[in-house]
């Protein structure tokens, strides 16, 4: 009887514990290909990624979600933390003419799509934020 080779690195066989880390790694590589310098932040109560693009003078605070569904609903508390940190960095970096954008990027595993929303522009501050796979990236 032939032994089947085990496929390593398939997204659908990941443990729940590593889903978030996989989503962060995918978004990190995506941003690096776009020319960003990316820092992965290990604390779950703050943005997952901090990314800076020198030429565009753009600083992103990114909350990453990873799903196999068609939409993700982000909790209001996470959005408040992201918005508040965005305000802090905006006040610090404005003197250097660096534009700060807090955003949520969602990796839709089955569709192989990364969709996102800016927190300040598309969130009313009172409810949860919904990101669908059909939403485009903010940049």
What is the compact description of this entry?
This protein has three helices and seven strands; from the N terminus they run αββββαββαβ. The chain is α+β, with helices and mostly antiparallel strands and 139 residues long. The strands form two sheets. A five-stranded mixed β-sheet has the order 1-2-3-5-6. Strands 4-7 form a two-stranded antiparallel sheet.
Q: Which structural category fits the helices and strands?
A: alpha+beta
| Share of residues in strands | 25-35%
Order of helix and strand elements from N to C terminus: HEEEEHEEHE
Shape: globular
- Arrangement of strands in the largest sheet: 1-2-3-5-6
Helical proportion, percent range: 25-40%
Question: How would a textbook summarize the main sheet?
Answer: 5 strands, mixed
Instruction: Quote the distance from N terminus to C terminus.
Output: 52 Å
> Which fold name is given in CATH as the topology?
Trna Endonuclease, Chain: A, domain 1
Structure commentary:
- The protein is 29% helix and 31% strand.
- The protein is of the alpha+beta class.
- Strand 2 (49-53) and strand 3 form a beta hairpin.
- The model is unreliable at 4-13 (pLDDT under 50).
SSE topology:
Elements: H1 16-33, E1 37-40, E2 49-53, E3 58-67, E4 71-74, H2 76-93, E5 99-108, E6 113-118, H3 119-122, E7 129-132
Parallel strand pairs: 3-5
Antiparallel strand pairs: 1-2, 2-3, 4-7, 5-6
